[in-house]
# Entry
Amino acid sequence: MTDRVLQGVSRVCLAGGFALTGLIYAPVVWLAILSVSGDPLSGYPGGWSLRWYGALAQDGSWTGPMLRSMGLATIVSALCVAIALPVGRSLPRLRRGRSLLAAGFLIPLGVPGTVMGLLLFTFYRVVLGVRMGNWSLVLAHVVLALPFALIGMLIAVSRFDIGLLDAAADLGASPWRRFLDIECPLLMPGIVSAALFGFLLSFTELPRSLFVAGPYQTLPLYIWAEASSRSGHVPLIFCLNTLITLVSASAAAFMVLSLGRTGPR
Amino acid sequence: MSSFLEAIGISLVRGSANALENVDLTVEKGELLTILGPSGSGKTSLLRVLGGFETPQRADRLRIDGEDMLKQPPHRRPVATVFQHYALFPHLPVGANVEYGLRVRKVSREQRRARAQQALALLHLEGKYDRRIDELSGGERQRVAFARALVTEPKILLLDEPMGALDEHLRKALEQEIRTLQRDLGMTVIQVTHGREEALSMSDRVVVMNRGRVVQTGAPRDIFDRPATKFVADFMGLTNVLLGSVVLGAAPDAVSLQTDGGRFDGIWSGSAPPSQGQPAFLAVHPERLRRTITCSGNSLTGRLRGMTYAGVGWMVDLETPAGQISATISRHDASEDIMTFTWTPEDGPIGPVDVA
# Structure
């Protein structure tokens, strides 16, 4: 009897879960549909055409912000790997203060973006005297992405058997070879996810950028500005957003798959 | 003449406890030595010191084939270890695992492959070269770990509880194989185990450890027949232990034990010579007790307290004046509940009671 009730409850939960994913993905699909419609601004699909994509290709104003954002995201991504890898591999080997330090790295997750942006702006600008521009953006984006990158790395590290390094040393491998031959390949899902978190979070970041970008225009800042001002441009934004969503969603899917894959046993 | 491996005066402190306390270990070339002890006795710590994974706080000497090892990191020591859980590289196939030691030594690809195939053949793993590690059974993984260690031709092969994760049947077969391999290749092997049977059946020499110290070293028969301390007697399964005091006899090692339940003759097995009246134990294996009806020589008579069927016979527990003893009998008559057992002095080693 109870079994049946439980089974019913779990079915309802599952259905609810699916409904929620619908709520998440439906707007994306809607956006894509509107981007191939004749008059996207009406809010209703119809009059199918690719002309807005054509117009987007003609219009050159977004390529600058796009390239800038890609460059920025690449730097942030590299920094995330460079920080998350050594921190992630040493955290579990600490004898003391392990959870405290991990918490210290992860707590920024709980600070709202606009608050963090304001804090970074006042502190970097006023106290450290950092000029607002590309480097302040790099800093702000690393602060945002590092906890995520670190979580991905810690998942990979927690599956890694440190005894394997003893085995490699025992067979004659120097510390550097041990790192290259054993640790790197086995931590690769963590490295990939740190890189992708860094790239994607930086590439799509708006609230912190609003404060610390200075004169530097990133792609999200460009889209934000365009969408709210020149209505003639808005249909192009539909197309641009659709393309960006496609690319970053597939990158995210790749990351989730590589992290979620059961490690070799 | 110095030994092939000399580890003299090794002390290792881990946390607040002494993992190793002034341990001496020497091994000759071509010898299979087993370090035997319960968990926490320091046997694995000793192996890790030899491999270079632990640095002893004090060491008078650590030499392999005359070369000082104390300053050498693990990857520069001429030893190879088969780890307890094998520590095979999960991202590499069998062949690449076996070749790894050759790869870091920059051996050419063709030679690497040839030598790996040879090692795999030696361990009956032909055709497994391209397999993934997770496709192998426990026994196969263990063999791959052996092949991987052997292929670098280490001066000493270290085995850390190599049978620990295997079932009884597989263990027996592998014990034989390791022994044969070791003899054929003339290898020097140091094995760590808590299994008394594999220690006795495989080894040239056994070192018994307890609480970070070496308590006895000797041939398997010496350890079993002449346990130097009560701890060793217990660990060897000599479960019948009588306590009393030493009575010296005609010959230096022909001593007797005076107990509340009588006086018994045995052979002194302690490392230091016995002294009159010294507190001591006498240990007899249940299998060495024989049924008798006369009460001459060493004999104990007692009332039957319990009986367990053990396949080849029964294990009986008797209450005797000297304490509880166990023995095995092959036939049993339901009416008897008083039994007498006897044993020869050779089967009853007498040794000093351990000082705590």
Remarks:
- Chain A has a mean pLDDT of 86.
- Chain A has eleven helices and no strands.
- The CA atoms of residues 46 and 82 of chain A lie 48 Å apart.
